[in-house]
Fold this protein.
Amino acid sequence: EKKPIQTFMVGTAESCYSKDKTEESVWASKWDSDEEFGRQALNGALPVLIRRIKFLPPNFPASKSIPSFCLQRGWSLEKEIEEGNIFLQDFEMMEGVSTVVKDGVPLAVPAAMVLFYLTPSQELLPIAIQLGQKPGNDCPIWTPADSAEDWLWAKMWVGSVIGQASQLFYHLPMCHFAMEVFAVALLRCLPPSHPVHKLLKENFQFIILVNTGGREIVLGGGLDGVYAAGSMGTLDLMKKHFSRMTLEDFDYMKDLTKRGLDKIPNFQHRDDSKKVWNAMEEFVSDFVDFYYSSDQDIQDDYELQDFVKEISENGFIRLKQLSVPRNFTQKRELKNLLVKIIFTTTAKHSSFNFFEYQRFIPNAPHAIEGPLPTEADRGAMTYKMMFERIPSREKYGPELSGLFDVMTAAFSDNQTWLTEMTKI
């Protein structure tokens, strides 16, 4: 007999919300704090966006808006940037995407910009939020100097877009549809006895089945009841990602360096991912060296050459930025590609699919009703107004649970490879 799920109440009397009690729920008691907001920027549902900046974007004029108490070293913002203490989340990919229309009014999806500050005590804190790419009275800058309600409301809008960007812009294109290209090429070109087939087969388990169902959900409007971007917005986001995608995007170590996050403290996602990446790199290197003693062996493996040619000429042929070689000439090329594939289908996919932060609706309200706050709204927000505009557990729960059920239903023992079917 299953025990009922325990819940506990989070927040104050004015901003109280029930939360399922799980082992990971320690953070939920302070979900609305700046400290937790900063921690999740590094270790939450979207650890792949934040980056260290060398200058403030011209469309984010936050210098004069940030209160002096936020910059704890007593330096100017320019000095803090120069010293490497300022970081940015830029959701520019959300600009102009289609959204769900509810009661005749399109829901808002903010192309937000969030500025973070690394304090002397090594905490990462938000210091400015702009809920769009075009600053002005319709898109003002919010800071900790605003009322507690206004500041929390701005962070909740960011929480809304974090979940959507994580799932719809990164997770689906990178971990599912891009990986499907490699899976199809594997099944077309490499026989089950081939070592690369044996290595990758379990990494691609269920991917074609899940992606087929996923396309039906997206094209059939199945996301409209969960995300403000809905199914049409999802298509917009995937088009944007594929138009920019490069093979180097799948190299975790290079991505860390590119974003300037090699040494930022309290970045557990990076620390754990580097260990996993290095272990995979070592294993793949030993594996390839065992089967291929020289680069010539790679060149002579016509099945392997067909595999990479299939990827290049039929898989990613329409993606101009994604350059995949038409043939392998060296062992290191095969090793690099295999590590990228295995890491993406395991560690990276797991980080996007860690739904603990997205199941708690105030932390990630994927569909907020009403318009984005403007300068005219400053000082008017109340906790009651916030919780009336985010999805309720009763209204949002069935749609979200149904989506999770559909997306995980394929993970069963019912899938059988054709070569493993019982002969009749």
